[in-house]
Amino acid sequence: MKQFALLIILLFGFTSGAQTSQFIIKGKIVDSKTKQALPYVTLLLSSVENKKEAVTDADGNYILKSNPGNYQLKAVYMSYKSFTVENIQLNKDIVMKDILLEESINQLNEVNVIAEKSAVEMKIDKKVFNVGKDILSSGGSANDILNNVPSVNVDIAGVVSLRGNSSVTVLINGKPSMLTANNGLSQISAANIEKVEVITNPSSAYEAQGGAGIINIIMKKNTMKGFNGSLQAGIGNPARHNLNANVSYKTEKVNLFGNLGCRYLDIYGYNKQFQTNTDNGTTTILNQYDDMKRSIGIYNMYVGGDYYINSKNTLTGSYYRSKNNNNNKMHYNYNYADANNVTDSIISRSEKYKEPQIYNALELNYVKTFDRKDKKWTTSLQYDFWNDDENQYITQQKTYPFNASVSNLYSRDIESSNDIFIKSDFVDPISENSKIEMGIRSDLRALRSDYHTILDNVLQEQFTNKLKYDENLYSAYFQFSSKYKKFNYQLGLRSELSDIKIADTKNTFNNSKNYINLFPTLHFVYNLTEKTDLQLSYSKRINRPRFWQLNPFSGVSDLRNLTVGNPDLNPMFTNSFELTLLAKPGKLSINPSLYYQHTTNYFEYIVKRTDENYFVSTPVNLDTEDRYGAEVSTTYNPTKWLRLALDFNYYKFKQQGTFENVNYSAEDQTWLSNFRSVVKFPKIISGEFSFRYRGKNQGVQSLTEAQYSANLGLSRDFLQDKMSVTLNVNNLFNSQITTEKITTQYYYLVSEARSQGRYINLNVIYRFNRSKNEADRLPDGM
């Protein structure tokens, strides 16, 4: 704790400073017709002696501070007419009336100045990572984007973690989506993502799911009037090709939009495993090598429109469809040896895997605004229906000593789901400094799985069954926020009712779990100086098991290393505390945090050895996990052409619990770090480099070795910024390899896995009737 105390002194010590006689001018920028807030509008406050500049936040609010005098205030925004307020006498703090910006009719002939958003924005309740111009992720997927976001990591299996904790909820535009499960994020093109919000301690307005917090992926939206669009194409080595077309047409009453896209990827990987087994004094050795090639074809379509009923009512309808064809080839080689590592036998196993997936989403949104500023009511209805058909064709043969007989195994799993999501939120500013928020939502999900396995024309009963999984969640929340001088606070309470059932046709299990829980949230913010805020926050979170963690059917690719679900797994609960400083001294932005999380009913994967010396991994409930750490995120802009960013996260954890009379406890510490640099020379070239490091850590059973990776990208604009060409190299040192070790009295197991090697991408994007700073319109809920 001495180190933490010293860290607080060092980080918070520079915040004190002398008071000045300056005054504040603040207000809000909105669209003159829709009355919707306009984010990232440039504000120029100028006089004969002074000039100040600011950019509106995500809610359209701005604040400037300057010496007394006579000023001119100018608002500038791409595709909108500039607006100027003359003769402002700044001799006291001023709250301006809302500035109404009108869209420019001759938008193509105008040249407006717009401030470029910083790569990372530090906000009171979240960090916002803007990826609209991200070079390194061009041509990639949402997984590539997330791996460039501070505090976030996506491992080789597609599992997302936040601050090293995988108990995180991933949303798309604030809503749940099936594309955030089962590595579905790889289906989302990086070109369609505008920004990522990292929310480590969410308020009650967010769902309580996710003990580590929430990652919210914000898709791009178009606001330009008239007909406009963009066309993007890219190639890669290994194959990483993409083609995307986006168009929109906007008038005063309607905004029609559409997007067509396709991607094709070839992914090469491998897995090495070495194990020793000791039984009754006899030791055997297995050397295993798996070679893998995945070929993925993804096709997306999105169409919809906004209807502006009047200045206060907007209705939006949309349809999204995604088809994903997976064709994988795997080869497994098992070399068995005696204690002296002399080969005893070799088994060869080959698999062809085909999985077509079809995902559909229908959405209807309604937004109503009122005469009172910031008062708003939003309601959305979303219906998702999807299915996939997993087919495995496996052959196995003993090649040493040679045996001519070949075993044939066929497995098929047909999954489908119907999901309904309903949400309604109401925001009412009851006074100038206070507001209330309330809302209700329902998440209704019905998932079905029908699988069977046939070995040499004989049905395998142990791998044949039908599953029914129903998850119905009902929630409501209320929160109150207010401001008194330099002190801001927000108090919230959320209630969630969970009704979950999982059963199979063989009646081997029939579990029903019903529980209602309250989730309080507290946020306190104190404004130390004009550019320095101190925040203390608390939230209670829940982490419900996912379907794949409950499903006891695991697939039969590698029977010697199975991962199976546990239908009796219970949810875990987390109490999260965080102390954060947000400061922007000059060209430096620094965001240090101290955090602590206490989790009960913690679940973890346990590896068990079978009588055949096979290994089975399954999630079980343990007792508690305590996790505490320190994190610092910094950005530094020494010049207009250079931006540097460094993120560092150190944490300790202690896990305790027993399962089947075996004690599983672990205590360790580790750290994560990410460095990024961006160099921009207008009209010449832009470059970006990132380096990520993850320290090793010891879990309840396995030791995970350290890992590092680096990416490099270059970009150039042509034809007056209508065309952009980007070249990037990901996994520059071919170092994204995960190594794990398990050591017990009876066996030793070490594995090395790589799911993606180094790859190179070349992408070209061309825009018509659209500026470089304007975005595509893409689905809200995907």
UniProtKB/TrEMBL annotation:
Residues 368-766 form the Outer membrane protein beta-barrel domain. InterPro entries: Beta-barrel_TonB_sf, CarboxyPept-like_regulatory, OMP_b-brl_3, Plug_dom, Plug_dom_sf, TonB-dep_rcpt-like. Residues 140-213 form the TonB-dependent receptor plug domain. Residues 1-20 form the signal peptide. It comes from the Bacteria. Keywords: Cell outer membrane, Membrane, Signal, Transmembrane, Transmembrane beta strand, Transport. It is a multi-pass membrane protein. PROSITE patterns: TONB_DEPENDENT_REC_3. It is found in: Cell outer membrane. Belongs to the TonB-dependent receptor family. PANTHER family: PLUG DOMAIN-CONTAINING PROTEIN (PTHR40980), TONB-DEPENDENT RECEPTOR-LIKE BETA-BARREL DOMAIN-CONTAINING PROTEIN (PTHR40980:SF4). This is Outer membrane beta-barrel family protein.
